[in-house]
Write a structure and sequence with these properties.
With 285 residues, the protein is of the alpha+beta class. Helices cover 31% and strands 19% of the residues.
Length: 285
């Protein structure tokens, strides 16, 4: 049995265990140099008599291109100015204006009007230019009964009313006046149709039937810009089974197309048609 005190035993046990390592002291950070004082390496270089080297800046392709763009116009303007200034000055021509001249003679208004373009040959009320229906004939109403013929009224006289109506509008239709009568079994219609100036030239050509193989075609005596046609066979009235022989005379005066139409039970009398066309043309001309 041990005679050592308990404290000694405890102390011996503590001495047998390894002691912990002491903490390593942390070095304090070096103080920053004061403002305005160069770093130590640079300071030593200056004391030794040397100069610190600076890194060179390199200009990229974009900077060179921008410099060329900005300097090009300036250099070009300077060179152009130098060339132009070395040339002798060229005197400018005098500014002159033509003198206004007036005729010494007085102008005749009638001669001046005759020398200019003629006015529209036909204007005003077209109904006054229509011939009177023959005595003993029966008047037939057309349209609203006032003597004027609308595009719709004229188109109703044809088989293809829609096509005729559209064609008149495309041809520059302006207005139309007509007189209509019947004598025996025959009916007559005389019309004056006015078109626009730009499209009147083709109206008489468009009024001629596409096929004249069944027609006897000639001219109105004394008028080369005309047609006189009589049919060899019968036709049917629009939307009807009743038949008729057809005759028509066409002529143009300025912007007005003259038409004389005959619807007969028997073959059309060409002499009668020619007489009506001549009388209407003389009144129109």
């Amino acid at each position: 049995m041990s005679t050592e005190p308990a404290d000694a035993a405890v102390a011996g046990t503590a001495a047998a265990e390894p002691s912990a390592a002491p903490p390593v002291p942390t070095a304090a950070p070096a103080p920053a140099p004061p403002l305005g004082v160069p770093p130590l390496g640079v300071l030593d270089l200056i004391k030794a008599g040397g100069e610190p080297t600076r890194a060179r800046r390199r200009f990229g392709a974009g900077a060179l291109f921008l410099t060329a763009v900005l300097a090009g116009p300036v250099v070009g303007a300077a060179v152009g100015y130098a060339i132009q200034s070395s040339r002798p000055p060229t005197p400018l021509p005098k500014i002159t204006a033509p003198r206004l001249s007036y005729s010494a003679e007085r102008v005749d208004p009638e001669a001046l009007a005759a020398a200019g373009p003629p006015p529209l040959a036909i204007d005003g009320d077209l109904r006054r230019l229509l011939i009177e229906r023959p005595s003993g004939s029966t008047a037939l109403s057309v349209g609203d009964g006032d003597g004027w013929l609308s595009p719709a009224d004229r188109a109703e006289a044809f088989d293809d009313s829609v096509r005729e109506f559209t064609g008149m509008l495309e041809d520059g239709f302006r207005r139309a006046a007509t007189v209509r009568w019947s004598s025996g079994d025959d009916s007559f219609r005389v019309s004056l149709i006015q078109y626009n100036q730009d499209s009147v030239a083709k109206t008489i050509t468009g009024a001629v039937p596409h096929s004249t193989t069944d027609m006897v075609v000639s001219k109105i005596p004394g008028n080369t810009d005309s047609y006189l046609m009589t049919s060899k066979k019968t036709y049917n009235y629009a939307r009807s089974t009743e038949t008729y022989y057809y005759g028509e005379a066409l002529a143009r005066k300025g912007t007005v197309l003259m038409t004389v139409q005959v619807f007969a039970k028997n073959p059309v009398d060409r002499a009668q048609l020619e007489d009506i066309a001549k009388r209407q043309w003389e009144k129109l001309a």
